[in-house]
Amino acid sequence: xxxxxxxxxxxxxxxxxxxxxxxxxxxxxxxxxxxxxxxxxxxxxxxxxxxxxxxxxxxxxxxxxxxxxxxxxxxxxxxxxxxxxxxxxxxxxxxxxxxxxxxxxxxxxxxxxxxxxxxxxxxxxxxxxxxxxxxxxxxxxxxxxxxxxxxxxxxxxxxxxxxxxxxxxxxxxxxxxxxxxxxxxxxxxxxxxxxxxxxxxxxxxxxxxxxxxxxxxxxxx
Length: 221
Fold this sequence. Notes:
Helices cover 50% and strands 14% of the residues. By secondary structure, it is α/β, with parallel strands linked by helices.
């Protein structure tokens, strides 16, 4: 294993239940990188949102946006990025993706204005990795980790988030994006699968969208 990652600032993203936090933890530990994890567990609106989305969507998304920006602004200071490689399990733009699914149109328009004011102040990742997993497998992972407030997440909500990510990727013209199909990968428990994912992340990518399909045998760019 190399002693350094190819990219200085890597973001591991994905839908709910893809294992992005587990993968970020392991990569950061193996490569002595700085780890930035989303602080979603402390958000008081999250359990309420899953019970009543219409009522709590706007305060939830605003609170996430404020907390994510504050954390990333503190953690990703330019001088720190030059000193130590960084792995994060979210990108600020996920706020816009989730808000596009959960908010009413007038709320979303206001939210977009606030988002774009603060988004330009943060550095962008050198590589954005998206872990794709089918909805049925996401639900299996959600059940396994057993967070009470997540157990009734509907399939169509997860499908809408997936579409939101893809719509977002299509709009990015100046970003390296790697999409890894993880349906047949267990990078948490199988070392060979984890090594394969790290190998993919450490490849040299040009600006643009790069995708993998059907496990370790095929890499399609």
